[in-house]
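> example.struct
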């Protein structure tokens, strides 16, 4: 009987090793290990063995079974791999080819700079406010101390929709809108990032551009607060060596008003082509909020003061990255955008 078992072992292993497919292998498995399989038949005959023989033959039978199982498992693995290889070949997939790279998007330089500005002021405790891009004459001009026929209206070429409605020319109207909502609550500390529109179009002007407005109103806010805030801002944005210069200026909604320059980012103040050999670059307009603007917004100008400022995000982006034509910011040319 032992001999019989060893023969079955040898035959089964040989047959399995040469099986050409998983189906064939399964047939062989049934032939030997199935209910009516050869090994099964032999084992059934074990009952007829004597008590001395049974344990020894039983052990041989177990060895044979294990040996056949082992070959079965090994051949199954090989045949499965072959089958996969075959399918890949038929379907024409070469898994060793490099994959198709997934293009990752990036942030637009204007978004990067706008968010940097916002992050800075959020850190100083400002909140973000917004208002409509289609604005009324009242908020865009009147409430900001620019009555009809005021010559300062000519500072901004405007897209009117009708007599009373226009595309806002600056983010300053959101100063009034926000104060109206908050009065008499103090302090008011907001920044207003947003798009604005002017009838302007050349290498440094676009009919649509972005501003960030700032407004701080409280008891005892002074011009030094404005200077300290913007000086810190300039150093944060353009590097710790940056100097600021406040030049007297005029805006109808601030008194006094100042234009703020930073030391030239290219030459550090020595004078070069970028700063027209002055050593300075203008970055924003600012001033102390005009009492009239506080009053129309619901604040008592005898009791509170405030400062405000407004900057162009395109201009700051151009200075920060040394971009000399504003229009590349709107062309959506990936060769330009991928540099950020
Ligand atoms: N609104 C002005 C503009 O668009 C910029 C500006 C100047 C805003 C002075 C201010 C300010 O808040 O105080 O040209």
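> example.seq
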């Amino acid at each position: 009987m032992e001999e019989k078992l060893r023969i079955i072992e040898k035959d089964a292993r040989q047959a399995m090793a040469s099986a050409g497919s998983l189906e064939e292998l399964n047939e062989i498995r049934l032939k030997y290990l199935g209910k009516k399989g050869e090994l099964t038949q032999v084992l059934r005959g074990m009952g007829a063995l004597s008590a001395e023989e049974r344990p020894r033959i039983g052990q041989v039978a177990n060895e044979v079974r294990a040996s056949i199982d082992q070959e079965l498992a090994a051949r199954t693995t090989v045949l499965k791999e072959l089958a996969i290889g075959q399918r890949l070949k038929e379907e024409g997939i070469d898994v060793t080819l490099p994959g198709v790279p997934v293009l990752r998007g990036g942030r637009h330089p204007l978004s990067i700079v706008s968010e940097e500005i916002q992050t800075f002021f959020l850190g100083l405790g400002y909140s973000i406010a917004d208002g409509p891009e289609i604005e009324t004459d009242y908020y865009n001009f009147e409430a900001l101390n620019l009555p009809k026929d005021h010559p300062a209206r000519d500072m901004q070429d405007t897209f009117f929709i009708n007599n009373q409605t226009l595309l806002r020319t600056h983010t300053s109207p959101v100063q009034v809108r926000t104060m109206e909502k908050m009065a008499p609550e103090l302090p008011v500390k907001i920044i207003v990032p947003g798009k604005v529109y002017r009838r302007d179009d050349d290498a440094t002007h676009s009919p649509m551009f972005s501003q960030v407005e700032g407004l701080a109103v409280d008891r005892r806010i002074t011009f030094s607060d404005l200077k300290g805030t913007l000086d810190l801002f300039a150093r944060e944005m353009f590097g710790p060596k940056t100097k600021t210069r406040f030049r007297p200026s005029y805006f109808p909604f601030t008194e006094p008003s100042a234009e703020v320059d930073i030391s030239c980012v290219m030459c550090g103040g020595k004078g070069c082509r970028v700063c027209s050999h002055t050593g300075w670059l203008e970055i924003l307009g600012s001033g102390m909020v005009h009492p009239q603007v506080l009053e129309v917004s619901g604040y008592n100008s005898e009791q509170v003061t405030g400062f405000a400022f407004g900057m162009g995000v395109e201009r700051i982006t151009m200075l920060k990255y040394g971009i000399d034509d504003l229009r590349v910011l709107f062309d959506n040319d990936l060769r330009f955008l991928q540099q950020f």
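> remarks
The mean pLDDT is 93.
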